């Protein structure tokens, strides 16, 4: 993902929007890649309660908060985004595991 223009080089709102759209496309591609791993994790787990692992969640949140600080981002905003993503993943995993277990 290479910027066409750096933020300081953007002279118009359209310049900024082009770059934000480029980043958003890349983010969706990364979310799709992450989702494939979440799906695989759900295939590996056998009990829906495994989807919620508080120790793992806290470790992930701490890593992302530290990363945010290193990048001069608001760590609370990053945590909110990741908790939302993790909550969605937990529900998704549980659904897959429950559906698979019902078929047995």
TrEMBL record:
PANTHER family noted in UniProt: CHORISMATE MUTASE
Key words of the record: Isomerase, Lyase, Pyruvate
InterPro entries with a match to the protein in the record: Chorismate_II_sf, Chorismate_mutase-related, CM_dom_sf, CM_II_prokaryot
GO BP term, pick one: salicylic acid biosynthetic process
Residue ranges annotated for the Chorismate mutase domain, each copy included: 7-97
GO MF annotations in UniProt: chorismate mutase activity; lyase activity
Protein name: chorismate mutase
Signal peptide boundaries: none
EC number of this enzyme: 5.4.99.5
